[in-house]
Amino acid sequence: MGQLDKANSTEVNRPQPSAVTPQKPRMVDWALVSKCEDELQAVVLCVHMSGLKHEWIRDQLGIDKGHWTRLMQGNGNFPTQKRTQLMSICGNVAPLQWENMRLGYQMFENQIDREERELREKLAAIEAQREMMHSGFLKAA
Fold first, then answer.
1. Which residue in 139, 1, 138 sits closest to 68, CA to CA?
2. pTM, whole model, 2 decimals?
């Protein structure tokens, strides 16, 4: 990836896990899923929502660079045997949501998962607030 490509990249510049760490994938906003016209767009959404570097995801899935590029451009076919691995790596189930929506089914979080998500969101907000206060304190000092 050239310098210009890096500057225009939407990927989050955070450290990538050193190995595939299975996560319990979460649902993404249904409004985003509903904009996907086909399954491949849902796969691209899944990757985008992860915030992970494409190169790292591709390597974890064992997909060569050329095929990955075609997939992310909306061409090619995503290997079906790698769908669940992709969702686990990316931490969301956008392709599964798209499939359910397409077939007229609905998906819901169970109560425990919903409560866990809400607690994590509250914790993240508290940590962000603490960080803001801490950085404001440092500037004032």
1. 1
2. 0.67
